[in-house]
Amino acid sequence: xxxxxxxxxxxxxxxxxxxxxxxxxxxxxxxxxxxxxxxxxxxxxxxxxxxxxxxxxxxxxxxxxxxxxxxxxxxxxxxxxxxxxxxxxxxxxxxxxxxxxxxxxxxxxxxxxxxxxxxxxxxxxxxxxxxxxxxxxxxxxxxxxxxxxxxxxxxxxxxxxxxxxxxxxxxxxxxxxxxxxxxxxxxxxxxxxxxxxxxxxxxxxxxxxxxxxxxxxxxxxxxxxxxxxxxxxxxxxxxxxxxxxxxxxxxxxxxxxxxxxxxxxxxxxxxxxxxxxxxxxxxxxxxxxxxxxxxxxxxxxxxxxxxxxxxxxxxxxxxxxxxxxxxxxxxxxxxxxxx
Amino acid sequence: xxxxxxxxxxxxxxxxxxxxxxxxxxxxxxxxxxxxxxxxxxxxxxxxxxxxxxxxxxxxxxxxxxxxxxxxxxxxxxxxxxxxxxxxxxxxxxxxxxxxxxxxxxxxxxxxxxxxxxxxxxxxxxxxxxxxxxxxxxxxxxxxxxxxxxxxxxxxxxxxxxxxxxxxxxxxxxxxxxxxxxxxxxxxxxxxxxxxxxxxxxxxxxxxxxxxxxxxxxxxxxxxxxxxxxxxxxxxxxxxxxxxxxxxxxxxxxxxxxxxxxxxxxxxxxxxxxxxxxxxxxxxxxxxxxxxxxxxxxxxxxxxxxxxxxxxxxxxxxxxxxxxxxxxxxxxxxxxxxxxxxxxxxx
Amino acid sequence: xxxxxxxxxxxxxxxxxxxxxxxxxxxxxxxxxxxxxxxxxxxxxxxxxxxxxxxxxxxxxxxxxxxxxxxxxxxxxxxxxxxxxxxxxxxxxxxxxxxxxxxxxxxxxxxxxxxxxxxxxxxxxxxxxxxxxxxxxxxxxxxxxxxxxxxxxxxxxxxxxxxxxxxxxxxxxxxxxxxxxxxxxxxxxxxxxxxxxxxxxxxxxxxxxxxxxxxxxxxxxxxxxxxxxxxxxxxxxxxxxxxxxxxxxxxxxxxxxxxxxxxxxxxxxxxxxxxxxxxxxxxxxxxxxxxxxxxxxxxxxxxxxxxxxxxxxxxxxxxxxxxxxxxxxxxxxxx
Lengths: 339, 347, 335
Description:
The complex is a heterotrimer of chains A (339), B (347) and C (335). Chain A contains 13 helices and 12 strands. Chain A is globular and about 65 Å long. Chain A has helices spanning 65-72, 99-105, 117-120, 127-138, 143-156, 162-165, 175-187, 205-222, 233-239, 257-262, 267-274, 280-287, 313-317, and strands spanning 22-30, 42-49, 54-58, 81-89, 92-93, 110-114, 193-197, 225-230, 242-247, 250-256, 323-326, 329-331. Chain A is an alpha/beta fold and 339 residues long. In chain A, helix 4 (127-138) crosses helix 5 (143-156) and helix 11 packs across helix 12 (280-287). Helices cover 34% and strands 20% of the residues of chain A. Chain B is of the alpha/beta class and 347 residues long. Chain B folds into 2 domains: 4-215, P-loop containing nucleotide triphosphate hydrolases (Rossmann fold), CATH 3.40.50.300; 240-331, no CATH class. Chain C is mainly α. Chain C has a domain at 97-299: MetI-like fold (Orthogonal Bundle). Helix content of chain C is 76%, strand content 0%. Chain C is globular. Chain C starts with a helix and ends in a 5-residue tail after the last helix. Chains A and B meet through helix 8, helix 9, helix 10, helix 11 and helix 12 of A and helix 6, helix 7, helix 9 and helix 12 of B.
């Protein structure tokens, strides 16, 4: 059942409530370090995505957001490794799957779109060939069927003149076109979850807007779930149902979009938001004094303690538990911001 | 008299192995006054970086004039000429690439002073002053670029730019490689420095919310041509060119309730600067394009004092787009949201 | 078409390139001490006889004049005669150059057969047993002198086991050689239908080809391994991994992207081995072109050396042209 090809994603969408598509429980990823012990790249992360849901995961570079995105596919960048926790996809523990079972899953049930679209495509193969590779690996389609499906996909991602573009090589495409081809590849097997790892960060703003809209429309049209991993909190405000903020390998706040943006609880979430504010006094308050350089996360206590303007003694020794503040709105903070 | 004036600047580059030309800049004119910030806004291929390079005299324009302080740039005169040396500076997009990894930070900051014939003590004093102004602690100055964060590297880049007390700094996307918090700090820093030093900025960027915070005036570039130019605040609330509308509605402010909604959606992507459209460059992407847009290049029209637009259909654009200050709304909202939890005396 | 124009332009540059190469080698050979006239006439020559011979050979003229005369004759298709073999250099090389080409071509084919699969296997799993084998192989092949390895092979397979033919040339004396058409004994035997000669020539090729093949697989292996590894770590391979493509597809695409580097190293090896196989040729008394040129150098016999340089230069230029064509086929970005 679980291994069989499933070309019509979302048909199992009648699953009972409280049965998320993806559930990450206590996930910890470490990179071998010489010398002193340091914090893991991902520390005890709990996270879930429901069917058909669009979730944003926001963090700065080095926050662990890309590690989290790749851990979902069990592809932690080397030499990192998963040292604890589980990734459940439709109830299956992906950590227990063998290489060939994982290969069946990747690209078919969970697919990924990463940034630098032209680097993601093989420079020596045509667009059609590269879409075909995925279809050949995951579907019973043959020559003519593959070509027809590839054309259909190119049309779905609004590529003009697909009959011509199918024979194009990646270097002949603009960045936006290449990103659309990558989307076509990601959607080829109608996956249940699409992960976009900062996929639009290299694009021009007007093209980014087109691609984001396309992504959301295609995904919601097929009942697919979408995880936007990004450093641009603006994307999450406009394209996501739910937002999670990651800092130093921990999800410090998570909540439904409107609740999160109306009432952010964690000082780090507010710091991220204040980066766009014009009120310098408020901004300075939340940014704190960082001229001496952003301090690294401490070994113990709250990871944000060294940069937090609301820090108390307790924060330096005790890492706060995840607490629920409103329906589905969680934060990890001893002294969350109250309204 | 303005500090800098650019008249009908044209820049073409030959395409390797053919007779075709890349038309990077196609007749750009603007002025920059003392202490003012003009933002050049556009996407990749809009020619904004090329304009910056022409200004510094790093490349000689194919046509047009650049006059700085009454002196015409180009030909033999560039940033390296004695009469201009130190008066024009540049801050780069990628701090890590623009800083020599083998030099210590104080040596990097000192670089522009070497050609000015100052003695060692004077140079040292100026380096320390520049470092202090950008908030680099003195003990950090003996480090190497690789040892500090990107945000700090960009501060070093800015310190190097202000150390010779320039009259103009060309900021070439100084924030686009940075994380949000580092970006915010750099924007604050640039605003403060301008207040303190009165330097004029030419701010090249595609980050519109940074542009809104930093710039007094704004020129929107499309395929090496200014399609709209005016006061920032006015242009942000009441754009007159479909491309400006497209840019503004692509901005994703971090508040789900605030977004410029528009029927004016641009299709497709920027065409190649090798085969430029015959008439209006945007005609192929614009939902309002009609016969004359494809036939004859629209002239520059003044729609309000200091506000020019190059479009036949500005009236329709302005009628369709209500004058709404989305950025102002966003700021009001974010003041409210960010104000929670802040001690009353600090708001 | 771009390609034809490109080839045309390349060919235009061939003539000055060849002239340059010839000039440099002419000067270098002239710098070697030793008087051909003395060598030819032996220790009992009279001053008169020497002077006469020098005049006959043109050795009494200036070096530039000598070069000019040589070039004029080359243009007429005359590469001069070798005083050692007393034969025209063209007919000597017609026999010896194909002998070397046959040896080097087969050796490189073997080297490719060993180097590419081992290199790919090494790149695929960077900790497995195959990787260890590949690493050790690279080390060994890089450190073993080829002539010594040839001697070991002769000792084992000819002296001890007696399964290999004697290392005395390309064919046993009792075998009637096929009429020369291409100069390659294998091909000529097939053309002539001379199966005995084919079997015998193939037998003689085994040990020298093994020697050069096994040794030269080293650099090919290293290049294949490192480039394929880099390609497997590149974004497009990682993305293919994320798309769940079968491992063999991912590796195949990575190898395709590594091909230009492999083609480059093979072409460099090819050009190098034309002269660089000389020690192995001597060990097997191969009578190849390298051996011919070295004897020329040692005996101040200028014409064979220059003839060899000219042939090798032309061959190298042909090889580089083929390499460019291969790039053109492999990589759409060059089109």
